[in-house]
Amino acid sequence: MKTTSVMIVGVGGQGSLLASRLLGTLLTDEGYDVKVSEVHGMSQRGGSVVTYVRFGDRVYSPIVTEGECDYIISFEKLEAARYAACLKKGGKIIVNTQEIDPMPVIIGAAEYPRNVLDDMKAAGYDVDDFDALAPALEAGSAKAVNIVLMGHFAACMDIPKEHWVSALEKVVKPKFLEMNMKAFNLGYGM
To answer: What is d(CA 93, CA 72) in angstroms, rounded to the nearest whole number?
Structure first.
């Protein structure tokens, strides 16, 4: 089997590390060789966070370079645009349409770019964009955006839903499991 590469991108505090742990656990349980790498510079201050997950029969490096990513799961629009060049031809970007202002926008030194997703689509990227915040709130917390997105991604994968649920049960604390299961199911159905 070829190696499949996934990037999970967002800003600090959005739960990208939990999402990568969910995906890594699932893929390991499925018998794949899995490599995960996290890069989170100023994540504590809302900075960019990227996690690489690569899986296949044999994976030698967790790092994804430009033009080799099969899927990008983006928790925010601008982060999708920031990493779009990593997508390979035929790859897919799943994007939460939420906007989180980066520091230059917050301090008034820049404006949040308008039409980010339209520009990506016009450039030929396969963009699957939707509001993941509304179902997260329906599930019980804005912090469940990550699991809504992972549920949506799960529907794109050739792995049974019940295997995802099993992995979710392994990585989510019991007191948050019901909310995360609801978020996952809402995302899966979108």
So the answer is: 5
